[in-house]
């Protein structure tokens, strides 16, 4: 069995950035395992621009952004195995994989980085009433049909969910000649970025129905229409509020689920809030030497932030491969009032440097404060003009604050 300093599962934006960072941090042997026949992951079907604004200070398409990192991987001669599916990951960091050339094979990493990304939540997870007809797609599947395969899934479209993929596909379908009649969102606020609401809906006069959901899909062989209902504060349809939209296509953009089956097999502790791994600030999971980054850890707004997190994981994995495990002095980070989750969930006081806490609000709050408390005492307060669930927020804790921590750390929003 060949042993590598760092084995990376996934060759998307997270895996690519982690590989480059691990190599540059001193890892002598790095391996990327990718199930697709090309590197780049989901970026290959994201042909719209807007990528790289934070990192490269220029607007790029998804393939252009991926190509920047692919070139860096090739420049360093980092080993890559394409069309390779990882079947299992053990706690001792042994990876079982399969491809058509080698069959089933095993490799072991002194450190392993999980960068498998995420998948879309399907119609089946929502239990929408109606017939099982053609014309119902996830937004990502429709994106691949249009941008990669050159097929138009439909001409009269209703979209359920206002996540960024759904918003972008509303614009994309319109540009390809389809009519997007409505975007429905069960929450009282959109889960997408503000700029996508403006550029993808408002600029094309596509209506956004907040506090609405699809309650029935009609059709025989193909979708013929949907019933839409307003929902109450408990997200239950309000009788008498129904209206009908004839259409031939329904797209679902109702959330992303981190691909954590391999993490579970290895015994990695998962967070019920993020559905990703519970990690320390260096992105090490509960299993020593296994790290996680990108959308398999938490669903990011921008790929620029995925790369940033992956570089941290790559550097940490390289250090682990050289020095092994270290004793930890752990402090728990707990999300409190008005906050859905905080990441990292644990801080190791023995690690040096500042720590950035990432969090998402559970609603829209204006003119508020983000408060960090330790042992009942306020250690940091940050004023915010507005926070929304669709945009990830961050708070930086200095090393001085971290060294003085005693007991659990809590994060909350105070209006």
Helix-strand blueprint:
Blueprint: E1 2-9, H1 13-24, E2 30-33, H2 62-75, E3 79-81, E4 85-89, E5 94-99, E6 103-114, E7 118-120, E8 129-130, E9 136-138, H3 139-149, E10 156-160, H4 164-175, E11 179-185, H5 194-201, E12 208-210, E13 212-219, E14 223-230, E15 243-246, E16 249-252, E17 256-258, H6 261-266, E18 290-292, H7 303-323, E19 330-335, E20 339-343, E21 346-348, E22 355-361, E23 365-374, E24 377-387, E25 393-397, H8 399-403, E26 409-414
Parallel strand pairs: 1-2, 1-6, 2-3, 6-18, 8-13, 9-16, 10-11, 10-16, 11-12, 19-26
Antiparallel strand pairs: 4-5, 5-6, 7-17, 13-14, 14-15, 19-21, 20-22, 22-25, 23-24, 23-26
Describe what you observe in this structure:
With 415 residues, the protein is of the alpha/beta class. It folds into three domains: 1-120 and 256-325, FAD/NAD(P)-binding domain (3-Layer(bba) Sandwich), CATH 3.50.50.60; 122-254, 3-Layer(bba) Sandwich (FAD/NAD(P)-binding domain), CATH 3.50.50.60; 327-415, Immunoglobulin-like (Sandwich). The protein has eight helices and 26 strands. Strands 1, 2, 3, 4, 5, 6 and 18 form a seven-stranded mixed beta sheet that branches. Strands 9-16-10-11-12 form a five-stranded parallel beta sheet. It has a five-stranded mixed beta sheet with strand order 21-19-26-23-24, with no helix packed on it. The termini are far apart.
């Amino acid at each position: 069995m060949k042993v590598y300093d760092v084995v990376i599962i996934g060759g998307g934006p997270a895996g690519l950035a982690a590989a480059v960072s691990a190599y540059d941090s001193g890892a002598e042997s790095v391996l990327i395992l990718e199930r697709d026949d090309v590197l780049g992951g989901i970026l290959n079907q994201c042909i719209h621009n807007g990528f790289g604004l934070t990192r490269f200070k220029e607007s790029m398409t998804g393939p252009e952004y991926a190509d920047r990192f692919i070139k860096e991987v090739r420049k360093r001669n980092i080993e890559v195995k394409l069309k390779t599916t990882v079947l299992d990951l053990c706690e001792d960091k042994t990876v079982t994989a399969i491809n058509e050339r080698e069959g089933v094979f095993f490799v072991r990493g002194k450190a392993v980085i999980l960068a498998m990304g995420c998948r879309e939540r399907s119609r089946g997870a929502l239990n929408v009433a109606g017939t099982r007809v053609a014309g119902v797609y996830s937004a990502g599947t429709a994106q691949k049909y249009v941008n990669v395969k050159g097929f138009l899934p439909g001409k009269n479209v209703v979209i359920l969910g206002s996540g960024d993929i759904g918003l972008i596909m509303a614009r994309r379908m319109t540009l390809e000649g389809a009519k997007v009649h409505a975007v429905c969102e069960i929450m009282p606020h959109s889960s997408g970025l503000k700029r996508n609401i403006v550029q993808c809906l408002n600029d094309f006069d596509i209506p956004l129905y907040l506090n609405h959901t699809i309650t029935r899909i009609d059709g025989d062989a193909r979708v013929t229409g949907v019933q839409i209902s307003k929902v109450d504060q408990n997200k239950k349809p309000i009788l008498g509020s129904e209206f009908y939209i004839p259409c031939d296509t329904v797209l679902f953009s109702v959330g992303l689920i981190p691909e954590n089956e391999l993490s579970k097999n290895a015994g990695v502790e998962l967070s019920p809030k993020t559905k990703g791994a519970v990690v320390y600030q260096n992105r090490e999971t509960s299993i020593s030497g296994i790290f996680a980054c990108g959308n398999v850890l938490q669903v990011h707004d921008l790929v620029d932030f995925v790369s940033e997190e992956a570089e941290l994981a790559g550097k940490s994995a390289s250090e682990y491969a050289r020095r092994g495990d270290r004793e930890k002095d752990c402090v728990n980070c707990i999300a409190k009032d008005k906050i859905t989750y905080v990441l990292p969930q644990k801080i190791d006081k023995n690690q040096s440097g500042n720590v950035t806490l990432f969090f998402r609000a559970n609603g829209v709050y204006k003119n508020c404060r983000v408060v960090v408390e330790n042992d009942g005492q306020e250690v940091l307060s940050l004023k915010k003009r507005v926070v929304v669930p669709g945009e990830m927020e961050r708070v930086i804790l200095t090393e001085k604050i971290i060294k003085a921590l005693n007991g659990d750390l809590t994060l909350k929003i105070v209006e």
